[in-house]
Amino acid sequence: MYLDDLVLVLDASFIPANRDLPYVNGIAAHAIHCADIIAASGVRVSFILHSYTEGITAPAVRETRILDQYPAVVVEFDVDIPTEPVARAFECALNIVAAPTRTEFPMVYHQSLTMIPFTSIDSRAIVTNHTPFVRHVADWASWTMARRTFTPDAATPLGPRKFEDLLDAEDRGLAALREREYIMCAEISALQVSWLRSQGIHPRRISEIPRPLELPAVNDVDTPPQPLQGLLATADVTAVTAVSQLNHFKNVELFVLGCCLALDSGDIDFAVMVGGPERDTERERIRQLVPGHLKDVFAFFPRLGHQALVRDLFRGLAGRGIFVCSSRFDLVPYTALEAARAGLCTIVADLPTVGARESVPDRYRFRPTPAGLAACLRRVAVEEDGISDFSPIAAAIRQETADDTFLTAFDNLCSRFSMPA
After folding, report:
1. How far from 301 is each of 79, 227, 264, 280, 304, CA to CA, in Å?
2. Which is the CATH superfamily of the domain at 5-212+402-415?
3. Which residue, 31, 209, 214, 407, has most beta carbons within 10 Å?
4. Single pTM value for the model
5. pLDDT digits (tens, 9 = 90+) for 270-280
6. Bridge partners of residue 240, in order along the sequence
7. In terms of C-beta distances under 8 Å and separation of at least 24 residues, what long-range contacts does 69-72 make, across chains too?
8. For the domain with range 226-400, which CATH number is right: 3.90.1150.10, 3.10.20.30, 3.40.50.2000, 1.25.40.10?
């Protein structure tokens, strides 16, 4: 590896207490998996975690350890604190995590633009922008849609902050990215590549890197809930979707309404929706969309741990199930790609704002309406041999999302990194 020392920068609220717990969102899943891959190659990996504490008047820095493996420093601050003291706190955190190897300039790998304005100009830096930009959503739809989408409890780089705070942080981060021309963008979505270019970021600074999605080692503790184990024992054709957050982006209502049509017509036998926390009023609201005569064949579960979802549920349904990505705006539907690489036939809403669309042929795309989804389920499960025909597509996705593919691309990006004179 070109690197000796890598520091990942991430929102502290995204880190699970241990690896058995479900990830709150795909940002944490990507960051932690990247850390594991890069650490396994011999690079020293650590984290700087930023945490928003409303009402404090000065930043605070404290050392910790995450996932019983990685050294980390938490930087706490409020959005009302001026830039300079936050920048000093971030520099202090960077000195702490870099001290054991005395690396003068460790590579700093941001998972959003949020902390770039506070990063020292002497830091080598790469950024991956996981979440849609507010202004991108507003341009695509409307400001009303953007406000509805980025609700206060949505998973964003600012966590549960006001819409205005998020927009302000995005604008400041983008301005800092424009100014610091040596910072490289390692994007996992062609949508982000296009948007950043439209915002004046030079193409030479932007690379599209592969998404690493290989499964970690088996953990026997992480198993599906008992009702899912019963589902896996059947031979029925099952439609499934899984999301971390039940938000406007994910459009789970489309999945429910389309599956109800397919269940009524007998094209599928069972439907499963996985997502949201243990107690979730939104999941309960969506559950009420299912008519009474279908409630026994439509199951709803809170989000699962990663291994239970991918290794047990997806692999258990491979060859007889269909994963549905019903998102209306999704830069990288990680779960859809994980389902596909596990061998589960995957269909995707045919929208230019859904990143997984380009990973599947036309026959596995559907018009984003309940009738369009039901028609695609019928085509794939009944009229054509779409489920078994998906095998070579799954194999191609496995290669594209292999850990080695990501590691090679990331190492190549680091090796051509240049600092200002």
Report:
1. 36, 9, 22, 10, 8
2. Glycogen Phosphorylase B; (3.40.50.2000)
3. 31
4. 0.84
5. 999 999 888 88
6. 272, 323
7. 70/35, 70/39, 70/45, 70/46, 71/46, 71/47, 71/97, 71/100, 72/46, 72/47, 72/48, 72/97
8. 3.40.50.2000
